Amino acid sequence: xxxxxxxxxxxxxxxxxxxxxxxxxxxxxxxxxxxxxxxxxxxxxxxxxxxxxxxxxxxxxxxxxxxxxxxxxxxxxxxxxxxxxxxxxxxxxxxxxxxxxxxxxxxxxxxxxxxxxxxxxxxxxxxxxxxxxxxxxxxxxxxxxxxxxxxxxxxxxxxxxxxxxxxxxxxxxxxxxxxxxxxxxxxxxxxxxxxxxxxxxxxxxxxxxxxxxxxxxxxxxxxxxxxxxxxxxxxxxxxxxxxxxxxxxxxxxxxxxxxxxxxxxxxxxxxxxxxxxxxxxxxxxxxxxxxxxxxxxxxxxxxxxxxxxxxxxxxxxxxxxxxxx
Length: 325
Hints:
By secondary structure, the chain is mostly helical. The protein has helices spanning about 10-15, 25-30, 35-45, 50-55, 65-75, 100-105, 120-125, 135-140, 150-155, 160-175, 185-195, 200-210, 215-220, 240-245, 265-280, 285-290, 295-300, 315-325.
């Protein structure tokens, strides 16, 4: 029985032009057709778990004609991994190949891809690396059809190896964190996923804290809490500082007292990250003086020691608070 069981027989037989009841001819056709790529597809699907097998075969689609059409497109799309020469190097594999693509996508028990799973959304995410000013306009009128295995292979196999890795990271990141996000949060989800390639360590640090709100990830790229996405790197805290301060505000840069804040909930951490984002900053030197200070309370009490001009809004506010005390 081929991968997928009895329901997948109607998918494999049209590709091999042979009945599964004749196993010797069926296997021979797998290796002879398309330079062995059909046998490679057969092997990859065979080692997947049942849920991802159903996704790759399209068993979650109610339309049987569309299922067969998309599975044929998947078999043709395997040729997109051009660096894999299966006839001369049958044991060789391409980097970030079909096996990794199907293994990293999140699916339901019946094979339905997890949200966000629309083709239009992921097409806009993969279309570039810049952060647009008007995200809602970018997502207006997108294709709401769900992604499938054939679409993923066509999108990922046709690009460079480094871009493949980046897109797989974005796909896994988006489904891992924002599966429960509603339609109103889609612009924030878009910014969070696309900016993973530019602020990778910062994004993973916020995830490690336990924050799942897409607005926090999107806000980490907007300087001063203005909500406007810029193309230049924002003046935000380093990933290590964000992690330590969000878990325990009393911890210094060496991690002292960090164990006291390990039980802090994600909501509290999200508020602290948002508070860091709203802090007014002038120059990067001013930011680093406040962020990398070994004694955070002392830096607050002595804002005149910051290496920035007297016109810095952050310094003036800190000095006003110091005088009020």
